[in-house]
């Protein structure tokens, strides 16, 4: 048994350095933040550029990359870099870097400290070193300061410096493609229908998609105008379509690919003094792996899962964005859900890390993430989720200084009770409310996510062995937790919305209540009370965004209400499918009809029809029906609690860092195969179950547990579902 | 009288906004820092690029410029910008900016809030708006955040935000020259002698200078190598010359200007497969105004003053740098002296502000300026000096947030006694010492400049009306001041060098002692004791850099020892002139001979022969002989204490923000004309003096005072010098 564990440990260590191959390296976070914001800043609204509405943080313009090597024989290395650079090895060897071709230098036998200093304002300083034994990877160090000039962070003297770190990387392994030139891949795609209309041609690509429109044999002296639409109505509506762009026809007959990629299902093309033979699309996509699968006896649910995957695929770009039509921005609240869905779908670590770095930016912290108080808190939670699912301690160590400085900003802004409030400049968002809400004072929801963030700090400091910091945050957690009780209304069986001047308000919404349930911040008795008095209570305002429905359904799942959730999914998400959705929407109100469905923000096509937060069923199914989740970081240990929730059977694969967990569940049979880690299958049975490998352990009335080893062997359980 | 004062006040206000004309604007400090570091990073050493050895801070890549206007009729404006930009005015008017030509938009009648959002990573976001009534100036606001998202700095809640400020500007008034394209002007200059040598041609430009070498009718297929020298020996020494560069000959016969400007008096040109008709120089210079003058009966002193001016001229570039051959960097310690010399020479505000911004960079502060503990302190002192000489309160307000964040960094790093020590990463420099010095523990010199910096914070907070901050710093000043006494050695009549574990060390150097004298941190009795026991004591190690000789002579001047100082100047600076210096050196040791003079840092031509800190006589003469200094900010009030110090007579002009003070002094006559402010002429006389305007006031034995109004009328005093 011990042996097996050791192997897994090695796998995990290897995995956390999996980008350690010969690769481009940079200062951790800087490139990710830069790249993510290149995406963010590509947003347009009716032809007008819309850069982000929060602070953009810049990168370190001067970076020193160092690596100590001990050579048995002289070695020639090739150095590629983005920026002006100088290479130094020892006192005598100093070379100016070539900008347009690799610089070759030969290092002498013995100990060499290679130092490559890069200056680059326009894009992020980065290097790629290719030698026989010497190659850039995350074992190189990166710092904006010379080694002997690195000062201690006096606020956190026990913590590692955020300014002398292992270099960052991200699977950019081609020395001839500089990181700033990174582009998502594209693949050609044809339309499914063309309608010649008065004034132009309407192309239907058959489903929500994203890419560059290509004109075949374009010729003329005029302009081409592209009106994009998620619906035909939008594409045809020159007054109101959300995105359009006009291009001058280039000289000479040629195939012409427009410079900007866009979301679309339809494109209406108006040509003025221009002809072309045909149009196609270069579908632009993130090359994520489809590592998960889900199939069950309910075809509608299968379709929901597939459309969820496609929605997540489309909104997974350089970073996880909210929606592909609008805003095309990384939002911390939206991203947290994308991360979770991703762990049950692509298990793509790079996009997750890039998004977290993009959201966090650089120091100093002078405002909340996306300007939103709650969005700062989600970010901490996302970092811990990442660690829990991937076991990537290396990343945790790298990002920890940024966690500290964001938390410092938050702690400085507490009120005299040590709780958070929306201060000048803070946007207290929580959710779109259809009714008026007073968001001033101590808002219970914010305290809950604040408390969770402090827990995250304590846990992460502990994992990294920074004991004094862990203790400090633990104390803060206890303090905030002790005050959460203040918000409980014993009569209403609910957490009230906010407190002002020491008095609870009368407002109640579901948000704080459902978070308290799945964060386990209330007693089991309170959970039941919340379920009935709040979540299922029609007098409490219904939640109107898929964003918060995500958590509402998660709360219900965590209360064992999968049957309820399954019905809701079929009803709500199935409802969108019935309306012809090919991806899930930003908002869906079954009460609306016709074109009403596309309106939002007071605009006829304001709503995004492909919004990441619309895809939550893929997460809920993976975590609460298939029932797979890590109980130790990186699936070193995991739990599988299959719940049919009204289904006859399902069959699903959930990805783990370096393997998979396959689960088949039906009313009399559960079959599980795992290929790494070890875990427990937990299930209910009215009869005494049987298992082919290992042994059955009874852990409650009708509740049983079977241990499973990630050795690729199928564990088969015969049981009787309740 | 009141009336006169009012006029001056208006002049001062106008002056502090003097760059408010229609001009390029940016986020204050960002462009200055960027530009200064473009200069810094042009340093080379024997053909190898040497970027700065400290942290480079980047600019805000997204900037929002706003201005509210109230129009009586519609107005068309032209918007120029550096970066991608979007213009918004109200909800309806939104326009993408053109990158290559100005964007024209027409604003409607009534109240308009113009918002121009610029994104630029490569260079600093900047705009220039040209309209009939609407024009960019420092009344525009600049912020990296939308107005409603600007948070309070919780550490300094009473202080103005450093992230919503009046736009910065710097006399860049041509819309067609983007700030990033700013270049110092050049003017053609010929050599004075050409020597054809084996292997190449040696050109002598007659004096230390700086510029781009130009080849006339260059043709060939090979290379030209330029070996620069401050001496002929250096230019001819291919093995050891400090700067050289090789260029490929471009195709076709043409005049060719090399891409890099360099310091030189001599250039040795080695042509390989290349011919040219002639060579000249494009002298590259800062177009500062020669506002001061000095002439006296001593020709050597006149020459010293002129060579000092030329030294300062050459080292005044985009920013004030140390020396033009090496390091070509802005160093805070060197810059402080350049600022002071500048007030008595060019009174160039822009270069001073640019240098301060360059040195300070952006938040977060993670290391000392130039990595040097003392250099952080000099920076505060320089800011106050700037305010004192210019009266530019607008700048003080703009830079104050950067003062706070640097001081926060310093305060966090104090020891348990509240004093500063060199911690990990800090370079405790003070001076180049020829003997071993233990710089650990509480170093007295550092406490003195720390105390002065705290005083500066208190004063500036007070000036800006930030009372709680002023109080806080005042308390800190008193605390540190009360501990300065610990360093006094009653037996040795000196401030000891440092304290460790509560015990004074035996080390004594002049540094802390002379600073304590002119900062008035010791009693009059102690000052006399220091003069004799330290400054004039041959057993105390002599100061070996003109850098610290600056302060040594300043201390002696402040003790009324002008005679001594005059002799030292003639001896030391006169000594360099006798060796043929055309600018003053980084270091000069009269004991050395021949080529020894050019050695430093273990390299035969390592010494810089044009170093700003070598020019201190221009400051000492202006402040302590001509005796002019402001006693209220911006020369609103000033003092003139002419001291002949052994001279027969002198005649000098000292610039003030918007005027001049002309002083002639001889043994029996003083004549002063001032054109702004009001002040006092203070002088000693053995007889009762006479004055043509105003009246004589006796203020001590043989000491008299005459009030002068800056009305341009000459005040003539007849007296008898002692």
UniProtKB/TrEMBL annotation, chains A, B:
<keyword id="KW-0732">Signal</keyword>
<dbReference type="InterPro" id="IPR035398">
    <property type="entry name" value="Bac_rhamnosid_C"/>
</dbReference>
<dbReference type="InterPro" id="IPR035396">
    <property type="entry name" value="Bac_rhamnosid6H"/>
</dbReference>
<feature type="domain" description="Alpha-L-rhamnosidase C-terminal">
    <location>
        <begin position="627"/>
        <end position="663"/>
    </location>
</feature>
<dbReference type="GO" id="GO:0005975">
    <property type="term" value="P:carbohydrate metabolic process"/>
</dbReference>
<protein>
    <recommendedName>
        <fullName>Alpha-rhamnosidase</fullName>
    </recommendedName>
</protein>
<dbReference type="Pfam" id="PF17390">
    <property type="entry name" value="Bac_rhamnosid_C"/>
</dbReference>
<dbReference type="InterPro" id="IPR048932">
    <property type="entry name" value="Rhamnosid-like_N_bacteroidetes"/>
</dbReference>
<dbReference type="InterPro" id="IPR008928">
    <property type="entry name" value="6-hairpin_glycosidase_sf"/>
</dbReference>
<feature type="domain" description="Alpha-L-rhamnosidase six-hairpin glycosidase">
    <location>
        <begin position="292"/>
        <end position="623"/>
    </location>
</feature>
<dbReference type="InterPro" id="IPR012341">
    <property type="entry name" value="6hp_glycosidase-like_sf"/>
</dbReference>
<feature type="signal peptide">
    <location>
        <begin position="1"/>
        <end position="21"/>
    </location>
</feature>
<dbReference type="Pfam" id="PF21209">
    <property type="entry name" value="Bac_rhamnosid-like_N"/>
</dbReference>
<feature type="domain" description="Alpha-rhamnosidase-like N-terminal">
    <location>
        <begin position="65"/>
        <end position="269"/>
    </location>
</feature>
<dbReference type="Pfam" id="PF17389">
    <property type="entry name" value="Bac_rhamnosid6H"/>
</dbReference>
